[in-house]
């Protein structure tokens, strides 16, 4: 009996073991390793291209143009041409043709200042040109200054024209400094289309002078006035110092910027000489 029970127990145990072997075991899914977890690829953002900034060109800083004597000298030439045009544009009240046609040199002072009470003072800057075998010379810049005594009340600006009529007057002008009435004889010039037949204007004075104020053109006396070279304007216009004699005798060519005055002077002088 005991043997039978022992066999039954053994048989039951065998069946239990066999049954456990037949039951399928669940497969363990491989969990991803946290350390091996792949991070999403970090796409590198393209860096903006650094365009090289252009270096500022190292140019020499140009000095601003000095608005000094040179622009004023050029404006003076233009103004002098305008004065001649306006005066000779009314021939019945202008410089007589015989005088302008035979003048050795012509000097113009636009807007000469004249003023004072009882004692008057004059000051102006002008430009002159003389006849040469090749035409009218390069311009010479000058200053006219001096005083006159007489009854003068108030002040006014006048346009002044001076005609050097002979070689003696021209020599005085070439000296770069002379005094009217002392170094050179001066007289008020006649006005009109033609000079009067009995007027000895060629012998009476080395310099004939005219003025225009408020539209009235007439002869004027400038005894005591001193004419000297305007050295500052000369240097700035020519970029160097040019003596009166060098410019007025035709030793240097006239710059193009002098044409507004020289072309006007040549036009009226030729017109006067042809009549």
Tell me about this structure.
By secondary structure, the protein is of the alpha+beta class. It has eight helices and ten strands. Strand 2 and strand 3 form a beta hairpin.
Salient structural properties:
globular; alpha+beta; 275 residues; 32% helix; ten-stranded mixed beta sheet
Helicity, as a percent range: 25-40%
**Strand and helix order:** HHHEEEEEHEEHEEEHHH
Radius of gyration: 52 Å
Portion of residues in beta strands equals 25-35%
Instruction: Please provide the count of β strands.
Output: 10
Gap between N and C termini: 180 Å
- Give the helix/strand class: alpha+beta
Largest sheet: 10 strands, mixed
Mean pLDDT: 75
How many helices in DSSP terms?
A: 8
Oligomer: single chain
Silhouette: globular
Uncertain parts = 26-41, 54-69, 149-154
Helices, strands, pairings?
Layout: H1 2-22, H2 69-88, H3 97-102, E1 105-117, E2 119-132, E3 135-136, E4 140-149, E5 155-164, H4 167-174, E6 177-179, E7 186-188, H5 201-204, E8 207-213, E9 216-219, E10 226-229, H6 231-238, H7 244-248, H8 259-274
Parallel strand pairs: 7-8
Antiparallel strand pairs: 1-2, 1-5, 2-3, 2-4, 4-10, 5-8, 6-10, 8-9
Helix pairs in contact: 2-6, 2-8
Structure summary:
The chain is α+β, with helices and mostly antiparallel strands and 275 residues long.
